[in-house]
Amino acid sequence: MRLVARPGYKLPGQVVWDGPPPEKPIEAQIRVSAAPLTRNAFSSERQQARPSIPCEFTLPALFLDDYAVWITGMPRELYVKDVTCAGRSVLYEPLRPGSSVGAQELRVVVARDGGFLTVNVRGKDDKPVTDSTVFIMPASVISEAEMASRLVVGQSDQNGIYGTTALAPGRYYVLAGAMLPDTSPETISALWRTRLTRAKEVQIGAGASVQVAVEPATGL
Asked: What is the pLDDT of residues 112-157, one digit of tens each?
Protein backbone atom coordinates (compact mmCIF):
# COMPACT_ATOMS: atom_id res chain seq x y z
CA MET A 1 0.00 0.00 0.00
CA ARG A 2 1.36 3.40 -0.97
CA LEU A 3 0.13 6.50 0.84
CA VAL A 4 0.81 10.05 -0.27
CA ALA A 5 0.48 12.70 2.47
CA ARG A 6 -0.50 16.18 1.34
CA PRO A 7 -0.22 19.40 3.31
CA GLY A 8 -3.36 21.11 4.49
CA TYR A 9 -5.05 23.50 2.09
CA LYS A 10 -4.38 27.13 2.99
CA LEU A 11 -7.50 29.21 2.49
CA PRO A 12 -6.96 32.97 2.65
CA GLY A 13 -9.80 35.23 3.68
CA GLN A 14 -10.78 38.69 4.71
CA VAL A 15 -13.45 40.39 6.78
CA VAL A 16 -14.96 43.39 4.99
CA TRP A 17 -17.68 45.93 5.64
CA ASP A 18 -20.93 45.99 3.71
CA GLY A 19 -20.84 49.63 2.66
CA PRO A 20 -18.75 52.36 4.28
CA PRO A 21 -16.99 51.58 7.58
CA PRO A 22 -18.08 53.25 10.83
CA GLU A 23 -16.38 56.46 11.86
CA LYS A 24 -15.22 54.85 15.10
CA PRO A 25 -13.22 51.64 14.56
CA ILE A 26 -14.66 48.44 16.04
CA GLU A 27 -12.30 47.14 18.72
CA ALA A 28 -13.31 43.50 18.62
CA GLN A 29 -12.14 40.21 17.20
CA ILE A 30 -14.48 37.63 15.75
CA ARG A 31 -13.90 33.91 15.35
CA VAL A 32 -14.04 32.33 11.87
CA SER A 33 -14.22 28.53 12.04
CA ALA A 34 -14.62 25.74 9.51
CA ALA A 35 -16.11 22.53 10.93
CA PRO A 36 -16.09 19.25 8.93
CA LEU A 37 -19.61 18.23 7.98
CA THR A 38 -19.23 14.47 7.63
CA ARG A 39 -16.55 13.54 10.20
CA ASN A 40 -14.72 14.64 13.32
CA ALA A 41 -11.91 17.13 12.92
CA PHE A 42 -8.33 15.85 12.91
CA SER A 43 -5.96 17.28 15.51
CA SER A 44 -3.79 18.76 12.73
CA GLU A 45 -6.67 20.73 11.20
CA ARG A 46 -6.19 24.35 12.19
CA GLN A 47 -9.52 25.59 10.89
CA GLN A 48 -9.94 28.68 13.04
CA ALA A 49 -8.88 32.33 12.85
CA ARG A 50 -9.45 35.40 15.05
CA PRO A 51 -9.56 38.42 12.70
CA SER A 52 -10.55 41.97 13.54
CA ILE A 53 -13.14 43.95 11.57
CA PRO A 54 -11.89 44.54 8.88
CA CYS A 55 -8.85 42.27 8.55
CA GLU A 56 -7.21 39.60 6.43
CA PHE A 57 -6.79 36.07 7.80
CA THR A 58 -5.89 32.52 6.79
CA LEU A 59 -7.35 29.12 7.60
CA PRO A 60 -4.03 27.26 7.23
CA ALA A 61 -4.80 23.54 7.26
CA LEU A 62 -8.01 22.42 5.57
CA PHE A 63 -8.58 19.23 3.60
CA LEU A 64 -10.41 18.85 0.30
CA ASP A 65 -13.66 18.19 2.11
CA ASP A 66 -17.02 19.74 2.99
CA TYR A 67 -17.03 22.25 5.85
CA ALA A 68 -19.61 24.41 7.61
CA VAL A 69 -18.45 27.97 8.22
CA TRP A 70 -19.22 29.46 11.64
CA ILE A 71 -18.80 33.12 12.58
CA THR A 72 -18.97 33.81 16.32
CA GLY A 73 -18.05 36.63 18.65
CA MET A 74 -19.78 39.26 16.55
CA PRO A 75 -20.50 42.52 18.43
CA ARG A 76 -24.17 42.97 19.31
CA GLU A 77 -24.76 45.81 16.85
CA LEU A 78 -23.35 43.90 13.84
CA TYR A 79 -24.38 40.83 11.86
CA VAL A 80 -22.91 38.66 9.12
CA LYS A 81 -24.60 39.55 5.86
CA ASP A 82 -22.86 36.90 3.75
CA VAL A 83 -19.87 34.59 3.54
CA THR A 84 -18.61 33.80 0.06
CA CYS A 85 -15.85 31.70 -1.48
CA ALA A 86 -14.91 31.92 -5.16
CA GLY A 87 -18.02 34.02 -5.78
CA ARG A 88 -20.43 31.49 -4.19
CA SER A 89 -22.26 32.02 -0.92
CA VAL A 90 -21.30 29.51 1.78
CA LEU A 91 -23.17 31.20 4.62
CA TYR A 92 -25.77 28.40 4.62
CA GLU A 93 -24.11 26.03 2.14
CA PRO A 94 -21.04 23.74 2.45
CA LEU A 95 -17.58 25.19 1.92
CA ARG A 96 -15.43 23.01 -0.36
CA PRO A 97 -11.89 24.40 -0.29
CA GLY A 98 -9.85 23.69 -3.41
CA SER A 99 -12.88 22.60 -5.44
CA SER A 100 -12.89 25.62 -7.79
CA VAL A 101 -10.42 26.51 -10.51
CA GLY A 102 -8.24 29.52 -9.73
CA ALA A 103 -7.61 31.41 -6.53
CA GLN A 104 -10.10 31.07 -3.70
CA GLU A 105 -10.76 33.50 -0.88
CA LEU A 106 -13.19 33.30 2.02
CA ARG A 107 -14.92 36.66 2.25
CA VAL A 108 -16.91 37.54 5.38
CA VAL A 109 -19.23 40.50 4.82
CA VAL A 110 -20.24 42.34 8.00
CA ALA A 111 -23.21 44.74 8.00
CA ARG A 112 -24.22 47.59 10.33
CA ASP A 113 -27.86 48.07 9.26
CA GLY A 114 -29.39 45.39 11.48
CA GLY A 115 -32.48 45.78 13.62
CA PHE A 116 -33.28 44.49 17.10
CA LEU A 117 -36.22 42.46 18.36
CA THR A 118 -37.47 42.28 21.95
CA VAL A 119 -39.85 39.38 22.63
CA ASN A 120 -42.16 39.65 25.64
CA VAL A 121 -43.50 36.21 26.61
CA ARG A 122 -46.79 36.53 28.55
CA GLY A 123 -49.18 33.87 29.79
CA LYS A 124 -52.98 33.85 29.55
CA ASP A 125 -53.10 35.79 32.82
CA ASP A 126 -50.80 38.42 31.25
CA LYS A 127 -48.03 37.50 33.67
CA PRO A 128 -44.46 37.09 32.39
CA VAL A 129 -43.37 33.55 31.52
CA THR A 130 -39.80 32.83 32.55
CA ASP A 131 -37.43 30.35 30.88
CA SER A 132 -39.65 30.01 27.84
CA THR A 133 -37.85 29.04 24.65
CA VAL A 134 -38.15 31.71 21.96
CA PHE A 135 -37.79 30.81 18.27
CA ILE A 136 -37.26 33.52 15.64
CA MET A 137 -37.54 32.33 12.04
CA PRO A 138 -36.79 34.37 8.91
CA ALA A 139 -39.90 34.33 6.73
CA SER A 140 -37.79 33.94 3.60
CA VAL A 141 -36.59 30.39 4.36
CA ILE A 142 -37.73 27.84 1.79
CA SER A 143 -36.87 24.53 3.48
CA GLU A 144 -36.45 22.90 6.87
CA ALA A 145 -32.70 22.59 6.25
CA GLU A 146 -32.39 26.32 5.66
CA MET A 147 -34.49 27.03 8.74
CA ALA A 148 -32.13 24.93 10.87
CA SER A 149 -29.22 27.08 9.67
CA ARG A 150 -30.93 30.44 10.15
CA LEU A 151 -33.03 29.86 13.26
CA VAL A 152 -32.46 32.22 16.19
CA VAL A 153 -33.11 30.55 19.57
CA GLY A 154 -33.17 32.11 23.04
CA GLN A 155 -34.87 31.97 26.42
CA SER A 156 -36.97 34.53 28.27
CA ASP A 157 -35.52 35.98 31.48
CA GLN A 158 -37.17 36.46 34.87
CA ASN A 159 -39.32 39.22 33.36
CA GLY A 160 -40.38 37.11 30.38
CA ILE A 161 -38.11 39.10 28.05
CA TYR A 162 -35.71 37.93 25.36
CA GLY A 163 -33.73 40.44 23.32
CA THR A 164 -31.78 39.66 20.17
CA THR A 165 -28.50 40.90 18.81
CA ALA A 166 -28.63 42.62 15.41
CA LEU A 167 -30.81 40.82 12.85
CA ALA A 168 -30.81 41.37 9.11
CA PRO A 169 -33.71 43.62 8.06
CA GLY A 170 -36.71 41.61 6.92
CA ARG A 171 -39.81 39.69 7.95
CA TYR A 172 -39.70 37.13 10.78
CA TYR A 173 -41.98 34.65 12.55
CA VAL A 174 -41.81 34.47 16.36
CA LEU A 175 -42.90 31.52 18.51
CA ALA A 176 -42.46 30.69 22.19
CA GLY A 177 -42.91 27.35 23.88
CA ALA A 178 -41.57 24.79 26.32
CA MET A 179 -39.43 22.88 23.81
CA LEU A 180 -35.71 22.56 24.40
CA PRO A 181 -33.66 25.34 22.77
CA ASP A 182 -32.16 23.15 20.05
CA THR A 183 -32.24 22.62 16.30
CA SER A 184 -33.00 18.89 16.31
CA PRO A 185 -34.96 17.49 13.35
CA GLU A 186 -38.03 17.09 15.59
CA THR A 187 -37.91 20.75 16.69
CA ILE A 188 -37.34 22.06 13.17
CA SER A 189 -40.18 19.93 11.79
CA ALA A 190 -42.59 21.20 14.46
CA LEU A 191 -41.63 24.82 13.82
CA TRP A 192 -41.94 24.38 10.07
CA ARG A 193 -45.47 23.01 10.39
CA THR A 194 -46.72 25.71 12.73
CA ARG A 195 -44.85 28.85 11.68
CA LEU A 196 -47.59 30.12 9.34
CA THR A 197 -50.53 29.41 11.64
CA ARG A 198 -49.33 29.97 15.21
CA ALA A 199 -46.40 32.38 15.06
CA LYS A 200 -46.45 36.16 15.37
CA GLU A 201 -45.20 37.94 12.27
CA VAL A 202 -42.94 40.97 12.65
CA GLN A 203 -41.17 43.27 10.23
CA ILE A 204 -37.73 44.52 11.27
CA GLY A 205 -36.39 47.54 9.46
CA ALA A 206 -32.81 48.74 9.18
CA GLY A 207 -31.72 50.18 12.52
CA ALA A 208 -35.17 49.60 14.05
CA SER A 209 -35.98 48.30 17.54
CA VAL A 210 -39.16 46.21 17.43
CA GLN A 211 -41.14 44.72 20.32
CA VAL A 212 -43.61 41.86 20.13
CA ALA A 213 -45.68 40.07 22.78
CA VAL A 214 -46.27 36.32 22.38
CA GLU A 215 -48.11 33.69 24.39
CA PRO A 216 -46.43 30.29 24.74
CA ALA A 217 -47.88 27.91 22.18
CA THR A 218 -49.41 24.75 23.61
CA GLY A 219 -47.71 21.59 22.45
CA LEU A 220 -44.42 23.30 21.67
From this structure: 999 999 999 999 999 999 999 999 999 999 999 899 999 999 999 9
pLDDT tens digits, 193-220: 999 999 999 999 999 999 999 999 887 7
Mean pLDDT of 24-37: 93
CA distances for 25 relative to 15, 29, 74, 210, angstroms: 14, 12, 14, 27
- DSSP bridge partners of 173: 137, 201
CA distance 82 to 138: 15
**pTM attached to this predicted model:** 0.88
Q: In the chain, which ranges are continuous DSSP H helix?
A: 144-150, 185-198
CB burial of 141-156 (b: ≥16 within 10 Å; e: otherwise) equals beeeeebbebbbbbeb
Report the b/e string of 86-122 with b at 16+ CB within 10 A: beeebbeeebbbeeeeeebebbbbbbbbbbbbebbbb
| Per-residue DSSP letter, 30 | -
Q: End-to-end CA distance of the chain: give it in Å, rounded.
A: 55
Alpha-carbon distance values, 155 to 74, 179, 216 (Å): 19, 10, 12
* Secondary structure class of 197 (helix, strand, coil): helix
